[in-house]
């Protein structure tokens, strides 16, 4: 091959590579994401029933020394699509009970860039019945140090995400379901409880916790602790993931 032909071939290859790189940048430019915070506050009664749902996002509970419940949505959406996300909270007062039903919805199915993370701050003085549901996200309930111990209930579920709940003796019952993710329950040392747990593809572990079991297989567990204090009831399920119960 003559030198001129070689140079011409090299030039064609270089031009092709340049065009490919430019095209890649054109087609794979990151989509601009916008953020917005929606915050509402409510004065709780002695008893609070709170039902929270988000179509796509994490849900986290925190305790607060303030006297109001705070619902803080951190919304993220592809530029121009905030109008497709709607948050709404309904409050019902009836004597010494407050009911809050809050939800984040999207009118666009499968928009992976759009999400609504929810942070819930709870005052210490009330008794809570919590129902938390995420279509796609993690659910985190840390130690809350609530004043009304052993009277509170929490039920959580997520289609795709992990669940992490820590109890320092404030709950009467915990229900947790993850379709695709792990479920971890951290308990105050020497907590007495009964448990019914099931996995489809995964494992059930309770390191350091002695149980009197009625059923114990690779995918099912039903039993009670033989010692300890409290009457906590655990109902746990992970379709594709691991369930872990442990003392903190």
Which labels suit this protein?
248 residues, mainly beta, 2 domains, ten-stranded mixed sheet, 10% helix, 57% strand
In words, what does this structure look like?
The protein is mainly β and 248 residues long. It folds into two domains: 98 residues, no CATH class; 111 residues, no CATH class. The chain has one helix and 19 strands. Strand 16 and strand 17 form a beta hairpin. The radius of gyration is 25 Å and the shape is globular.
Summary of the model, kept short:
The chain contains one helix and 19 strands.
Number of strands: 19
Point out poorly predicted stretches: 5-13
Structural class: mainly beta
Oligomer: single chain
Distance between the termini: 75 Å
Number of separate structural domains: 2
Q: How many helical stretches? A: 1
> Roughly how much helix do the residues carry, as a percent range?
10-25%
* Largest sheet descriptor: 10 strands, mixed
Relative strand content: over 45%
Shape: globular
Estimated radius of gyration? 25 Å
Mean pLDDT: 87
| Sheet with most strands: strand arrangement | 5-6-2-8-10-12-18-14-17-16
Q: Write down the secondary-structure element order.
A: HEEEEEEEEEEEEEEEEEEE
